[in-house]
Amino acid sequence: MLGVGLWHFLENQFVRYRATWTSTIITSILFPIMFLVSIGFGLGTQIDDTSSLGTDDYASFVGPGILAAVALIQAGSLSLWPTLGAIKWEGTYQAALSTPLTAAELATGHILWIGFRVVVGASFYLAVLALFGIVASPLGLLAPLVAGLTGLSIAAPLSAYSATRESDNTFSLINRVGLTPMFLFSGAFFPVAQLPDSVEWVSKVIPVSHGVELSRNLVNGTISAGPAALNVGVLVLWAGLGWAMAIRTFEARLSA
Amino acid sequence: MTRSVEALKLTKRFGDFVAVNEIDFHVESGETFSLLGPNGAGKSSTMKMVSTVSPITSGSLRVLNRDPNTDGRAIRQRMGVVPQEDNLDQELTVRENLVIYARYFGLSWADARAKAVELLTFAQLVERGDDRVDSLSGGMKRRLTIARSLVNDPDLVLLDEPTTGLDPQARHLLWERLYRLKEQGVTLLLTTHYMDEAEQLADRLVIMDQGSIVAEGSPTELIAKHVTKEVLELRFPKADDGSRQRPDGLDTYGFHIELLPDRVLVYADDGDAALEKLRIESVHPSGSLVRRSTLEDVFLALTGRTLVE
User: In the prediction, which pLDDT does A103 show?
Assistant: First the structure.
């Protein structure tokens, strides 16, 4: 089902990226740094009691959390419009299907590419965290991969959905009532345990809070096997289910 | 001679709607074959099945001696597709569009780059090679799309309405390029709703209407079989109420007649003689024109409707 076409598709994305990567990198680095500075160092100075955070100070709590939470936003914006664009408005995926490439290869490459983009952005951001002295453990080097996996867990189901749409009229709504609340309640900015129980369980189910927890524990060197395995498991589950769905919706849409 | 495409009782249904209804046709390798018909005739649905993108509903279809349902990848490896709407990658340059597409077919980078140079010449886009696609005119984009379909030296090229929306000059340039491919022995399967396009390019064609094939043959065969050599077109002045002042009984003079909203067509092997005869019978049109018959007349004779409405 997946063959060399997958590599050819990713290669194409690299060629396209070469022309635009500088401008996209600047936005994808500035965005998390903005949050780090304003919330981590700005708001953080007002927080005296850090006992419930499990980290030395608020910046160490929020810094690595933002790394995974921003992956959600970035993966969301790379999934919704660009998927529909390539399928409906530009037809570039139809063009690719007149070659030996298959719809499954397109769907897979499309999602992996978003994951890659998230890893690149997160790597730059991790370097910034290190400059501020926030990266306490060498395991922190794995955090961009966690961001990438978090990106996949969002990109796969959202791309699968976007491929079924005729217009983008639901996308802004998804951003406002889906992605933005997930971003805020991901646990990046405050411990989810502080939420009422009726809301807390939501943050256990959504993938991004697992990405936040994992990233934070890696960067601060507070990782332990059991919770980490659960975090990875939830992320992989979302990414895997979304991937399987995306293959189906891409195949259905592109054969019509 | 081997057959590039062979369709038997080929059918495509979307729910209750029958887009293609049990059509039989075949394309010999090396020939240019055309599906001619108005919008909605089932041409594009047929093309999508041949291009292995859309599964067939029933009947049988062989493309390049393979089954599109199971051997799609292998068929596409040997085929070029020019879709109805340009789907070039707007983010890439003209040259990158060709190189990347060639890579999809498994050419090495060096071969892909060499192929792009060759095809830029074919498409007369050498000077525009490093420009972005969105700066090209409509005709240039079409030529690039056709060039892109040739990166794998295909045995069969499918062209879905290749000149729709182009100005006359751009169309003629495109026809000339397609004719060149035909001379090189490439099998072409094209759809069109322009009868002059089918007459210019097609060795053989089928006329489609509402999902079915209504006639098959070479352009000259079809004209000889279904209509007369010439057509006399008559125009009559408008009456005060907006209707046409057409004399009654035009069909009683022994000619086949078609009444169109703006003119009357009289089918006759000798158009001038027919006009003379009508004048003797006191039919006095405000304007008249004798021309040779076209596939448009064949379509009209078979379906009672015009191709481009």
Answer: 95
d(CA A54, CA A191): 9
Check the CA dihedral A130-A136-A139-A140 and report its sign. negative
Residue B297 has pLDDT above 70, yes or no: yes
Phi then psi for residue B180, to 5 deg, are -65, -40
- Mode of pairing for the β-strands spanning B79-82 and B156-160: parallel
pTM value? 0.88
Mean per-residue pLDDT for A48-76? 90
Query: How far is Cα B3 from Cα B26, in angstroms, rounded to an integer?
Result: 7
- In angstroms, the Cα distances linking B88 to A40, A108, B104 are 45, 21, 14
Taking CB atoms and an 8 Å cutoff, what residues of chain A touch B69?
A: none
**Stretch (H or E) spanning B288:** strand B287-292
pLDDT of residue B259: 84
pLDDT tens digits along A90-147 = 999 999 999 999 999 999 999 999 999 999 999 999 999 999 999 999 999 999 999 9
* Binary contact (A12, B73; C-beta < 8 A): no
Task: Take residue B164 and report the two structure tokens written for it.
Answer: 């729709």
What digits encode the pLDDT tens for the residues B193-217?
Answer: 888 888 889 999 999 999 999 999 9
Using a CB–CB cut-off of 8 Å, the residues of A that contact B are 4-5, 8-9, 11-12, 15-16, 19-20, 90-92, 94-102, 254-256
Interface of B with A in 147-176 (CB under 8 A): 148-149, 152
Q: Compute CA B108 distance to the chain's CA centroid, rounded to the nearest angstrom.
A: 34
- What's the Cα-to-Cα distance from B95 to each of B113, B117, B119, rounded to whole Å? 8, 8, 9
Distance between CA atoms of B188 and B179, rounded to whole angstroms?
Answer: 10
Q: What ipTM score was computed for the predicted complex, to two decimals?
A: 0.88
Q: Which two tokens stand for residue B154?
A: 């295909």
Q: Are strands B264-268 and B230-235 parallel, antiparallel or unpaired?
A: antiparallel
